[in-house]
Write a structure and sequence with these properties.
The complex is a heterodimer.
Chain A: H1 2-9, H2 12-17, H3 29-35, H4 38-43, E1 57-63, H5 69-72, E2 73-75, H6 79-84, E3 96-97, E4 102-104, H7 109-116, E5 120-127, H8 135-144, H9 155-163, E6 173-176, E7 193-195, H10 206-216, H11 225-248, H12 269-281, E8 288-293, H13 302-326, E9 333-338, E10 359-364, E11 371-373, E12 392-393, H14 394-406, H15 410-414
Parallel strand pairs in A: 1-8, 1-9, 5-11, 5-12, 6-7, 6-8
Antiparallel strand pairs in A: 2-4, 3-4, 5-10, 9-10
Chain B: H1 30-38, H2 44-47, E1 55-57, H3 65-70, E2 74-76, H4 83-94, H5 100-109, H6 111-120, H7 143-156, H8 160-172, H9 177-180, H10 186-196, H11 202-210, H12 213-218, H13 232-242, H14 250-260, E3 263-264, H15 269-283, E4 300-301, E5 312-314, E6 317-319, H16 323-331, H17 336-348, H18 355-367, H19 372-380, H20 398-408, H21 415-425, H22 447-463, H23 473-478, H24 484-491, H25 496-505, H26 507-510
Antiparallel strand pairs in B: 1-2, 3-4, 5-6
The chains are: A alpha/beta, B mainly alpha.
Chain lengths: ~425, ~500
């Protein structure tokens, strides 16, 4: 433990003093990184504060569009549910029971297997007070961790800014499989990277174009100037890191994005998680990763669409976990799902469902204390819009992730204290929460 | 020869008192040189001197917290006092950029005549896309062909502002190919319909949006019935298309869903033939009932599917609601004109136009009977449009950046590369990321999207056997208003290809 803390206390400036080159625009960047032994590469990212030193990684999986919680974790014995959903409730017959009352969607076989191994916590009835049924409003609430809509910075971005030294280490916070920074990661004080796909993440013109880009994007004037310069510097840093990390990583699971042509999913979840695995396994030093699976806005003919999305999610997450386990890294990684809202219990005439409120959150991985948590939605007590009332505030889940998994101070991110949940085993070598 | 402006060796701390904004650092009359450059008579020697390096230190009190945190210590000095530059600004904002010849012609017309031409000329229709009207399950639209057809027209059209607005409405009244599908002509039709919004009014537009076949599928109105309404279209119609969140209640969403229900898709002969062939293939015989093709390219109202219950309340009024009455009620709402005016100002002027300007333009928009020409004209002729604050205050969308680059290079053959490169920058045509459309400005700037923008320029130049002279590219396409690094780089570079690469991948070019 003494060694671990000592290593973790080495910070970026120490490496600079030792002659290793970090940061934007340095020609010797790739060489600098290659020269750093693995254990140092990892440690260097966790050094902003004393005490915030562990090798845990968080992977947030966004189910965009509003995931139907009642088709994900189904009430097995509710006649109200069958009455409200004459078409969709047929899925109950093939559900995978978690206990006598609740069962997983039949397509979640891989996640069920992990649940049986005690590696999945299903938190039911997660939502927030005075819920919004607008996608954008509610996404913002979940991204910022603030139902009053006053916060601008994302809760993950804040976590990075307050706890990790991200300057020159863009992979500390990384969105995989997209082209824009997701709102949850946004924070002006944090450096983040966005990688659409690792194959294409390079400068086509080779070194000359890379150098030209570095020269052009330095002290750019105007309101977007710093943003441009940071984006290009981050791209150059990331290109250098991927060059070294790709050589160290061979996937040990089959990631498949051709499961079926999944309706309107917009993102290749398998490829995004494979990239996440590469960053984790190769020692590129990520702490917080974000991936998205879209297509959950199932207003019509929901059954098949939602089932294929569940199958896609299940396949991708299973492969990711298997890959990490084969590399001996699964004890470090927590996967957590989120979605802006669940869906209305009563199905509509299009055999779909409209926007709702609560939904379950899944925490998956070796660090998890498995089980079924929270209270499932009570379909006999609906609000004025016909939606169930939340039983667990989503910020209780965030609080638990921050406190027990990343071992950082949740109050600095969430401003308040919420009902305590116990879902994650803290890392063995972690210092206590400050 | 003119002397070089002094380039600060490092950004000045913002705490230092900012000097008064200097209008000009050059001894050369900029207009003379710009005209000369356009005429093509300027050689590399002169161009390399770049005497108009226009940056000043930032004046902190003007800034919001966010701007303070992201902006650099230098700011652009607006050259928009100069009419020729104002014309270039106008074309960048409205027309997917310009070729050198287009700029020259617009400069000789002057600013006011160019505005009139842009707004008054009715939108030129693109040529038909072969096979698109006959798209069916047997022969679907090809997304690549559809997108390339549109990009080709962005470059060739004589009415580029109409194309800009078509893309604007595509990002506002969104639909995407993933949900709408390509097995019928609907997305192709939608693009043609949105183009006609250029000269239109909101009542006509909202009617056409509501019954547009691609929209009927994208937001599920065609599967909504009075008996069991689907709220998807109702909600987004009010939240994203017309009123904005906070100007209606959840009950209004449910009410409008009832009032709007009752539509079905139009069928073409090709769609019906493909269905019949499919039934024969599956069952060995033709279907018992074959529908007739519809004569229209819009949704068809089926009274039997509409709401038939008692009167209900929508936006404070209780009566029997029809789809038309729902749209009329929306047109009466006070938040409608400011909501759309704000969105267009954000697209064409700046992200922080003050409320009084929004109110002024919105009032005239409403009083004109929601006439689009009035709205566009008021925006382009507002003082704010050419104000110093608006200069380089917006980031080009990926499509704008790529089409402008292809125009600058006089290379319409790049349309295929443009279509293939959009996704990596976050903009695949006919596939906005959400029902809210595309993000804008700062959201376009990420490590991966900047890499994709720079890589596009490299690929574009690699595809060209010959490139035009880049001697005056910095004047024609960057207003000779350069940041210190761009200035230094261009000053040290004489090769045409390298100069084009720098000009088109510079931050200056990404802005509009």
């Amino acid at each position: 433990m003494a060694t671990e803390v000592g290593v973790n206390k080495i910070n970026r400036r120490d490496f600079l003093r030792a002659g290793l080159v970090f940061g934007a625009g340095a020609a010797g960047l790739a060489a600098g990184y290659a020269a750093v032994p693995d254990v140092f590469t990892r440690a260097v990212y966790a050094a902003k504060k004393d005490g915030v030193s562990n090798d845990r990684v968080l992977v947030m999986v966004q189910l965009a569009g509003g995931n139907d919680g009642l088709q994900t974790v189904m009430p097995l014995r509710s006649s109200t549910y069958r009455d409200m959903r004459p078409q969709l409730s047929k899925a109950v017959d093939s559900a995978l029971p978690l206990d006598t009352d609740w069962g997983l969607n039949k397509e979640l076989g891989g996640i069920k297997k992990l649940y049986d191994q005690g590696k999945v916590a299903v938190v039911q009835g997660v939502g927030y007070p005075d819920p919004s049924e607008s996608h954008f409003d509610s996404i913002r609430v979940w991204e910022t961790g603030d139902p009053t809509r006053r916060q601008i910075d994302g809760w993950l971005g804040k976590t990075i800014a307050q706890n990790y030294d991200s300057a020159g280490h863009p992979l500390v916070g990384c969105a995989c499989g997209t082209t824009a920074v997701p709102g949850a990661l946004r924070d002006l004080q944090a450096t983040l990277t966005v990688i659409n796909g690792q194959q294409s993440f390079k400068f086509y013109g080779g070194d000359e174009m890379e150098r030209a880009a570095g020269a052009l994007y330095t002290s750019t004037p105007g309101i977007y100037g710093a943003l441009f310069d940071t984006a290009v510097a981050t791209a150059r840093d990331t290109v250098a890191q991927l060059r070294t990390s790709a050589a160290k990583y061979v996937p040990k699971a089959a990631y498949d994005d051709k499961v079926r042509l999944v309706y309107a999913s917009k993102n290749q979840l398998g490829a995004a998680l494979q990239l996440a695995a590469e960053l984790i396994v190769s020692g590129a030093g990520p702490k917080i990763l974000h991936v998205t699976l879209g297509g959950f806005d199932t207003h019509f003919t929901e059954k098949d669409r939602h089932d294929s999305l569940m199958a896609y999610l299940d396949t991708a997450i299973s492969a990711f976990h298997q890959d990490l386990a084969a590399h001996g890294m699964s004890d470090r990684v927590l996967i957590a799902t989120w979605s802006e809202f669940g869906r209305r219990p009563r199905e509509n005439a299009s055999a779909g469902t409209d926007h709702g409120t609560v939904a379950p959150v899944f925490l998956i991985g070796d660090p998890v204390k498995g089980g079924l948590y929270g209270e499932g939605p009570d379909l006999t007590k609906l609000d004025g819009a016909g939606n169930p009332i939340y039983s667990t505030d989503f910020r209780s889940v965030y609080q638990e992730i921050l406190a027990s998994h990343l071992v950082v101070d949740p109050r600095e991110v969430l401003d308040q204290t919420f009902e305590k949940l116990s879902l994650v085993k803290p890392p063995a070598l972690a210092a206590t929460t400050p | 020869m003119a002397e070089r402006a002094v380039v600060p060796s490092s950004p000045a701390p913002t705490a230092r008192p900012a000097p008064a904004r200097k209008r000009r650092t050059s001894l050369v009359d900029r207009r003379t040189v710009l005209s000369a450059a356009i005429a093509g008579g300027v050689g590399v020697g002169v161009a390399r001197l770049l005497p108009w390096h226009r940056v000043v230190e930032v004046d902190p009190p003007e800034l919001t917290k966010q701007a303070l945190a992201t902006r650099s210590a230098l700011d652009w000095v607006s050259p928009l006092g100069d009419e020729a530059t104002r014309v270039a600004h106008l074309l960048r904002r409205t027309s997917f950029g310009y070729t050198a010849a287009e700029l020259e012609s617009a400069v000789s017309d002057g600013y006011r005549r160019t505005v009139d031409r842009l707004i008054e000329t009715p939108p030129a229709e693109p040529p038909a896309l072969a096979g698109a009207d006959e798209a069916s399950a047997a022969k679907p639209l090809r997304l690549q062909a559809l997108a390339q057809w549109w990009v080709d027209w962005m470059m060739k059209t004589p009415t580029p502002f109409a194309e800009h607005m078509t893309l604007f409405w595509h990002g506002h009244f969104t639909s995407d190919f993933q949900k709408v599908g390509l097995q019928d002509p609907y997305l192709y039709w939608q693009d043609r319909t949105w183009r006609r919004f250029f000269h239109s009014d909101l009542k006509t537009m909202l009617t056409q949006v509501t019954i547009d076949p691609a929209m009927l599928r994208y937001l599920d109105l065609a599967t909504s019935s009075g008996r069991a309404p689907n709220e998807n279209y109702s909600r987004e119609l009010m939240e994203l298309f017309t009123l904005g969140v906070g100007h209606y209640t959840e009950d209004d969403v449910k009410a409008a869903a009832k009032g709007l229900a009752g539509w079905r898709f139009p069928l073409t002969k090709a769609m019906i033939d493909a269905q019949v062939a499919n039934v024969i293939k599956r069952t060995g015989k033709p279907p018992k009932f074959t529908p007739k093709p519809d004569a229209v390219k819009t949704g068809i109202f089926v009274p039997a599917r509409a709401y038939k219950g008692p009167a209900f309340t929508y936006l404070g009024e209780t009566k029997a609601w029809t789809p038309e009455a729902v749209l009329d009620k929306i047109l009466e709402q006070d938040s409608l004109a400011p909501f759309l005016t704000q969105k267009l100002l954000t697209d064409l002027v700046a992200t922080d136009v003050d409320d009084s300007t929004v109110t002024r333009i919105a009032d005239r928009f409403r009083k004109s009977g929601y006439d689009t020409k009035t709205l566009m004209s008021d925006v382009l002729t507002s003082d704010e449009f050419a104000s110093a604050k608006a200069y380089r205050a917006l980031v080009k969308s990926p499509t704008e950046a790529m089409v402008s680059a292809a125009k600058a290079l006089q290379a319409p053959q790049l349309s295929r590369l443009i279509v293939n490169s959009g996704q990596g920058m976050g903009q695949l045509l006919f596939d906005p990321p959400t029902v809210g459309g595309w993000p804008d400005n700062a959201s376009w700037i990420s490590s991966t999207s900047m890499l994709a923008r720079i890589n596009f320029v490299t690929s574009a130049l690699a595809q060209m056997k010959q490139v035009p002279s880049a001697a005056s590219a910095h004047a024609q396409f960057l207003d000779s208003t350069l940041g210190p690094q761009t200035l230094a780089y261009l000053d040290a570079t004489t090769d045409d290809r390298r100069r084009w690469a720098a000009v088109l991948s510079s931050a200056e070019f990404q802005l509009k």
